[in-house]
Amino acid sequence: MQERVLAELVSAFNRREFDRAAAQAAEGLLQAEGRDEVFWLGLGDACEGYSALMGQRFDRAEQHFVAAMQNLRNFGFSYNGFNVTGLLAGLRRCNEEARQVRAQNKRSFDITLLPQLKLAQRVEQNV
By CB neighbour count within 10 A (0-12 exposed, 13-18 middle, 19+ buried), where does 8 fall? Predict the structure, then answer.
């Protein structure tokens, strides 16, 4: 997996630069093979969904969130140093909030629900 690309994606996402993060996901996908392809597709959909959400395009955001959850749900707690569980929880919560806004049960989307992505710390062992 492309560690630099993933680190840049996480950094852009956490700065709320979702379009930039989506571009990083696309770059990661270009180099991915096998299981990594599904992982990068899921990250790309998550970033696209958050971009749509910030543009108040709630139906489009929901489509991307569902696709991201479907692609990422089988990766367990983490995958190659990326905390998948945190993103999945954020996707679910934001998807529900967006549905509430679309159904007019809420007036606005609570942006404090936007998740922060995390990379796992790599521990170097001197053996």
Answer: middle
Residues 89, 115 contacting (CB under 8 angstroms): yes
Instruction: Tell whether the torsion through CA atoms of 108, 105, 61 and 12 is positive or negative.
Output: positive
Query: Chain-centre distance of CA 112, in angstroms?
Result: 16
DSSP codes, the chain: --HHHHHHHHHHHHTT-HHHHHHHHHHHHHH--THHHHHHHHHHHHHHHHHHHHTT-HHHHHHHHHHHHHHHGGG-SEETTEEHHHHHHHHHHHHHHHHHHHTTSSSS--GGG-----BPPPPP---
Question: Does the model's pTM come out above 0.85?
Answer: yes
pLDDT surpassing 90 at residue 27: yes
- Average pLDDT value for residue range 11-26: 97
> ∠ CA(79), CA(30), CA(4), 5° rounding?
55
Report the distance separating Cα 42 and Cα 79, nearest Å: 12
Are the C-beta atoms of residues 81 and 6 closer than 8 Å to each other? yes
